[in-house]
Amino acid sequence: MKKIINFPTKIYSDSDEYFENYTNIKIHLLKKINKKELKKVIQEILIAVKNGKNLFSCGNGGSASTAEHLSCDFSKGSCTDTNLNIKVISLNSNVSLMTAIANDISYDDIFSYQLARFGKPNDILLLFSVSGTSKNILKCAKEAKKKKIKIISFTGFDGGKIKKLSKHNINFPTNNFGIVEDCHLSIMHYISQYIKNINIKTNKKISKIAF
Prior knowledge:
By secondary structure, the chain is an alpha/beta fold. The chain has helices spanning 15-31, 35-50, 62-77, 95-104, 112-118, 135-146, 160-165, 177-197, and strands at 54-59, 87-90, 124-129, 150-156, 168-172. The chain has one domain: Rossmann fold, CATH 3.40.50.10490.
């Protein structure tokens, strides 16, 4: 098991020192990423897109914004100036539906309820969870298993139960939520831009494309 990097471990009186340590840990984690697993994640997404499958994303708190951001960047950013048609559904998007499910059924069901109705076999579920233990994320993953939906997760800490339920997992082993969420957003941007990069129409000049 990877050693979990704790930060902060003391009270910092100097903002420059805090900044240096914060950014150094983030850079270290990004450089230590499992690149073989990352390639497999990209391949799974490309296969799903080629076969017209849906991509679903979800998360809580800061991870909810990353799930929304992914929907934007994949649907618009990755597809502009390419022949791609990436169908991404953020399970965080419909606030009316989410709050109705939370109020009338349970907050633990806000994602799984939607996936049970909209998900199809061989779709992909992209989960963002720093702890890897959120009940609504775990329930969504279990629903995905039932429906034969492939699970790709992005986690922190030791990956939690989500890591074990996932076909592919990208983990950043630190206890700092901000650093993990920064890394998740960076990897999401990398994946969406790389997918665009390899699918740019041949009559476009790469130097003039604003990613």
